[in-house]
Amino acid sequence: MLKQISALLVTLFLTMTHLLAVDKPLVVGMELQYPPFEMSDKQGNPTGVSVDLAYALGKNLGREVRIENITWDGLIPSLKTKKVDLIISSMTITAQRAKTIDFSIPYAQSNLAILTNPTSGVKNINDLNQKGKVIAVKKGTTGHIYAGKYLNKATVLVFDKENAAVLEVIQKKADAFLYDQLTIYKNWNKHKETTVALLEPFQSSPEHWGMAIKKGNTKLKTQVDAFIKKAKSDGTFDKLSQKYLSKARATFDKLGIKFFF
Predict the structure, then answer these.
(1) Closest CA to 138 of 124, 155, 156
(2) pLDDT tens across 45-56, in order?
(3) Are 68 and 25 in contact (CB under 8 A)?
(4) How far apart are CA 161 and CA 206, in angstroms?
(5) What integer pLDDT is reported at residue 15 of this predicted model?
(6) Cα 215-95-180 angle, rounded to 5 deg
(7) Helix H or strand E encompassing 114
(8) 227-258 b/e with 16+ CB inside 10 Å = b?
(9) 218: burial class by Cβ within 10 Å (0-12, 13-18, 19+)?
(10) Which residue ranges of the chain lie beneath pLDDT 50?
(11) Which domains does the chain have, with CATH numbers?
(12) Cα→Cα distances 209→129, 212, 238, Å
């Protein structure tokens, strides 16, 4: 009888633990400074492609979602210290990052592109790897990594904010800003008279975005991977593309450049 009671208590404990884990909010970290993927509306509420994606993931898992707005440099440390459960912030999967965190399967692909100005004389990436050229990058991004690795003849200016880097190009203090294609397109669209967008890919292979998960959290990774596969097949990504990215997608299609989703 005592053994039966003990077994019942163990089963009850495990059941309650499972229920608590399911009921616990899914805390998603992102930097709300990257429209239309991660941003805030006029009331200060999180909105954008990644926000909708996070809520869709939470619905799929049966968990409430809480968005934490964290600066880019603080995202991975927040994941490691369990402040957030995962990161959905247009983060490129890189070998360096994968040493300390896990990634989901890719959910989008991108390439770096160039924002320049009409008087820079820059026509392609090779024009930038020259003495006297100045390149603006956002700290910690793949544009920053690429410039440091392949454009060592130029001067690289590192900024914490995207807008600061763009302003350098507009004011002709920098010859180019390196970032992903959609960001370059967006900034060119806002500053057509003072900037030029070079959207053609120049990397040997595209970059892929993934959701970042704490190292070793195989259960959540399995759940997230299954959700991404489902979202690709059931039209979720197409709906997000139509809602937030219809004009950009039309431009990319016209240029024959493969789109994010």
Answers:
(1) 156
(2) 999 999 999 999
(3) no
(4) 24
(5) 47
(6) 110
(7) strand 112-116
(8) bbeebeeeebbeebbeebbeebbebbeeeeee
(9) exposed
(10) 10, 14-21
(11) 2-109+207-255 (3.40.190.10), 112-198 (3.40.190.10)
(12) 26, 9, 16
- pLDDT, residue 123, reads 97
- State the distance between the two ends of the chain, measured CA to CA, in whole angstroms: 59
Closest to 21 (Cα-Cα) out of 62, 56, 59: 62
**Residues contacting 216, CB < 8 A, separation 6+:** 102
- Running DSSP on this structure, what letter comes out for residue 127? G
> Given this model, what pLDDT does residue 14 score?
47
Token pair listed for 178: 């390196």
pLDDT in tens, 244-261: 999 888 988 888 888 888
Q: Name the H helices within 44-174.
A: 49-61, 72-80, 142-150, 162-170
Q: What count of residues does the chain have?
A: 261
Residue type, 122: V
pLDDT at residue 203, as a whole number: 92
- Annotate 176-194 with b (16+ C-beta within 10 A) or e (fewer): bbbbbbbbbbbbbeebeee
Bridge partners of 103, per DSSP, are 212
36/40 Cα distance (integer angstroms) = 10
